[in-house]
Amino acid sequence: MTKPASPKALKRLSNDLGYTPTLEEWNWILEQVGKAYKTELRLRTMFDSELFSLNSYIIMGHLEDYLQMSTRIRAIEAHMAAEDLVAAGTRVGTKRNFIYLAAVLMHYFAGRELFISLGDIDTASDLDDHLIVLDFWRRATIALRTDGVLTNVHASPPNSSQVLDAGTVERMVNDLIPVDSGVLTTIRQLSAQLMSYCFLENCDSRIGVCDTGPYPLGDGRFLAVRELCTDTGDFAWTEDIRDLVPHHNFVIAYGFGDDVAMETNVWGSAWFTPHDYLKHMSHFRVYVTDNGTLTPLTVSELRPLTAAVRKAHKQLYVRYAQMSRKERALCAAQMYAGKLKPWARVAGAYDDIDWSLSPRVLQLYDRLSDNEFALELLGSVFVPEDRDSVFRPLE
Predict the structure, then answer these.
(1) Same domain for 241 and 259?
(2) Running DSSP on this structure, what letter comes out for residue 116?
(3) Within a domain: residue 1?
(4) Average pLDDT, stretch 223-237?
């Protein structure tokens, strides 16, 4: 077990862009994230997909991240620093958001654990690459979060994340629309349809839906903020379909009272009590950010938007169904391993990077298509019996 960080050290780790953490401090961060990751994976993340071989593509995406991420980060930061990328444009409503950033750290180091389990590397391999990934993630996280911590584990309240500044929260509060029975149905239908489409577009993964909050408003009231960002050209499988939706980047602000509780897990998915939390919503506002600013939509725009997303969803499902199982798996692996694309585009480094899947990972497809083997491998990595954290320390 790594020595806990002191309050002074934790503040420096979480706020000082110029500070270079020690190896012991990096290991402490990895241990904290890895413990929370393991807990979440045990509790509530496994589900089946009728279209996608989830276990296979998750492994392929993580392995690809391990092989490519440090090289891609070097190419991106040759153009623009991580903290400057965060500052470019709106803080919410893009794929440079909290869930994508958390995935940079967790998926890369999950890839390390997978390669160790496969016998391809050992715990002493590739330290310089590990530090590149950690440093990028840390500086981007410091720039993104407004609550002064690196992980939700250390946030106040625990299991929360805040990326909005006070001015943006105030602006959202002023924009909120009170909920009546008719509006409630409209916003619930749009929320459900957008989430469903984001899951499908991202091959039944959560990465297209990012939650932050709670943002306290006093008297037990709070704001929950959900970002739903759809494809604008990175996924070949959405060609012609993506244009059916008039907007691609959405932010929904939900207002709740003290009859709802919210927790945001380590990678940026929220869990609410009670489960039918949207029935308890008192206010809301839907924004689009395609033009780089928070632009509110009117209630009258929401039903046509829901219909457009529903149409796109149906067509995308048909397209997936017409693919072979392997074709779908490769789409999913490309999606999972493409999380740095939004950062590369803003930095002007997109064309400097080869985004294709590496031959080393492609060669593993047949082996990983054995679901029993893939499930056993994932289980040994994500819920290891010999340690509390998913991640082993760096050496």
Answers:
(1) yes
(2) H
(3) no
(4) 96
